[in-house]
Amino acid sequence: MTARSPWSIYYDKQVGRTPNPLLLEALKHCAEPGLAIDLGCGEGTDTRALLALGWRVLAIDAEAEAIERLHASLVDTPSAALSTDVADARHLALPSCDLLYAGLSLPFNAPEDFPELWQRCCQAVKPQGIFAAHVFGDRDGWAHNPTRTFHTRAQAEALVARGQVLHFAEREFDGHSALGPKHWHWFEFVLRLDAQD
């Protein structure tokens, strides 16, 4: 029997969850639906929530299985407002959007790739648009992994300094991942971005 990937296990555990609280917080600051990018969309819970609220959505994930699961979940209610892409964040070409939501996806990029990815995310958001994301903190249980990016509080605060901070919080707790028990530490934020240079 072929071993299932950690992502497959993760997607199974996400089925039936409610939209991420950070996405719901971000939506409080959006005047009306436009184009949203769900970066690292996983099995699609947050994408489906955006579609239900009248947003056009570009759902992106590096794992083909994530996009397959998203489409399968909408087979009875297909939406012309949805477009999808299987893409590695290092090679993303992001269109101009009103909302960019990256729920626990940006930290899965290596430190050498993170600054450029962060810049491209910020540049994709239209003036007065909303950017909401999580970044891992330096006390996260995976902080020893050199292929992922972690931030101190000061570094996280520096990241969000380029926009109007509408929400910023630090979360630290013991929980689980697809691989088993895990200590989580992240910073979450909602920014309103001005025109970028």
Automatic annotation (TrEMBL):
GO biological process terms on file: methylation
Gene Ontology MF: a single term: methyltransferase activity
Segments forming a coiled coil: none
CDD domains according to UniProt: AdoMet_MTases (cd02440)
Record key words, sorted: Methyltransferase, Transferase
SUPFAM superfamilies tied to this protein: S-adenosyl-L-methionine-dependent methyltransferases
Domain called Methyltransferase: residue spans: 37-129
Name of protein: Class I SAM-dependent methyltransferase
Species in which this protein is naturally found: Salinispirillum sp. LH 10-3-1
Taxon lineage: Bacteria, Pseudomonadati, Pseudomonadota, Gammaproteobacteria, Oceanospirillales
